[in-house]
Amino acid sequence: MLDERQIGDLMLTEVESAERPSAVLDLHRAMTTARRQRRLARGTGAALLAAALTVGGLVVPDLLTRDRPPAPVPFGTAPAGAQTGLPVALTTVDPQRVYVRFGWLPDGLRDLQYQAGLLLSGPGVYLGASNGRSDDQRQFVAVWLLPKGVQPSAPQRDSAEPAVAGDTAAGPELNGGPSVFASYSGAEKPEAILRWRYAPDGWAQVRVVGTGSDVRGTATQVARSLRFGTDPVPMPATVAGIPGNLRMITLGVNESLDEPRSWYAGWTWTSEPATVEPKWQRARTLTVGVSRYRNVTDPTDKAYVDPNTTLDGHRARFGGENGNESLTVYDVNGANVSIDDSALLPTGGTRALYPAVTLVAEPANWHTHLHQ
User: Fold this and answer.
1) Is residue 316 classed as helix, strand or coil in its secondary structure?
2) Do 319 and 265 fall within a single domain?
3) In 3D, which of 70, 196, 105 has the Cα closest to residue 144?
4) Distance separating the N- and C-terminal Cα atoms of the chain
5) Do residues 79 and 227 touch, judged by C-beta distance below 8 A?
6) Which of 210, 231, 252 is the last residue of a domain?
7) How many domains, the chain?
8) What is the pLDDT of residues 69-118, one digit of tens each?
9) Strand, helix or coil for residue 8
10) DSSP secondary structure string, 120-161?
11) If you write DSSP's letter for every residue of 179-233 in order, what string do you get?
12) Residue 205 maps to a domain
């Protein structure tokens, strides 16, 4: 469907080389593939929606208690004193919080993404920027915050060969303590991996690939300019009326600063408890997403507008089989609204949920916090 394809397009380049515990860029692509397969597969039954919400709107408890950090500084400048960290390591990741922002990026990295909550193999926070290329010209910067006690691991290689740890080197002082440059075998392009503790017993990592000859210098500048906090993630809509037996597991936003400018913001819930493996938490989900509308009439374009019905006076596309449903409503005041349900809602649940999605004023002019 439209919004999911846009997500995949924006996230494409970094997937194969992301680290396994934090390979968030794989997540939406994997979700998209799984949803398409599920629509053709046998329905797995329905359970009603979940625990992080109430009828009045989205509610996720503030799971982290800490002093609020100083107000963010303008994009492109580093915080005073290079305070590259948080007071305490994350023990629980609240998906609706912005824990880290870029303060500086190399030129040309125009596709930006933030994701918090359940990543591929566990909770974490991901912040990424790329040049949108999937060929040998690709460049990207990726930042991970790992929960308390979780150790960084080796990157994945395009070749699928295991990356073997090599020499380490001392890095700059970050967050008042030492950092280290790690190296691994199999890097296809110049690569720097810089690690430090953003809080006691909490690891942060910056990975830079393909941005030039001085990738360690780039990684250092990115790390020193990061801005940390716990502000709410700005979203282009609110969702009300969701039953209270689902738990929000992931919130993600991305934005391309190149023309035609595009953005996506979405929430994902599961009926599974946090104690089960991540793959089972993601096995059946409900996702609500909002993206900027573009009137694309070329069927070969990934953003092709392909309605087969109408809803509330808007063109829409609806599909479903064996309890799974997918709904996209096009051009709602300049935005698309997508609802993807893996048999967690009753029959017709996506269409029933749509009126409870309330967009901000003039959503076509809205931007993610990544744009700031």
Assistant:
1) strand
2) yes
3) 196
4) 28
5) yes
6) 231
7) 2
8) 333 344 444 444 445 799 999 999 999 999 999 999 999 999 999 999 99
9) helix
10) SSSEEEEEEEE-S--STT--EEEEEEPPTTPPP-PBP-TT-P
11) EEEE-BTT-SS-EEEEEEEEETTEEEEEEEESS-S-HHHHHHHHHHH-EEEEEEP
12) yes
**Does residue 69 lie in a domain region?**
no
**Cα torsion 209, 114, 5, 41: sign:** positive
357 closest CA partner among 247, 266, 248, 252: 266
108 and 189, same domain (yes or no): yes
Which domain covers residue 7, as residue numbers? Answer: 2-58+234-371
Q: Same structural domain for residues 190 and 294?
A: no
The contacts of residue 31 (CB under 8 Å, 6+ apart) are 4, 268, 282, 285, 287
Residue with tokens 């934090």: 22
3-state DSSP call for residue 165?
A: strand
Among the three residues 231, 265, 288, which one is the final residue of a domain in this structure? Answer: 231
- Position 102 scores a pLDDT of 96
CATH number of the domain at 52, please.
3.30.200.100
Q: What is the pLDDT of residue 80?
A: 45
pLDDT in tens, 163-208: 999 999 999 999 999 999 999 999 989 999 999 999 999 999 999 9
Q: Is there a single domain that holds both residue 213 and residue 319?
A: no
Residue with tokens 């744009």: 371
pTM, to two decimals? 0.80
In a domain, 174, yes or no: yes
What is the C-alpha separation between 306 and 2, in angstroms, rounded?
A: 8
For 58, half-sphere exposure in the C-beta direction (CA atoms, 13 angstrom radius) is 24
Looking at residue 138, its amino acid is: R
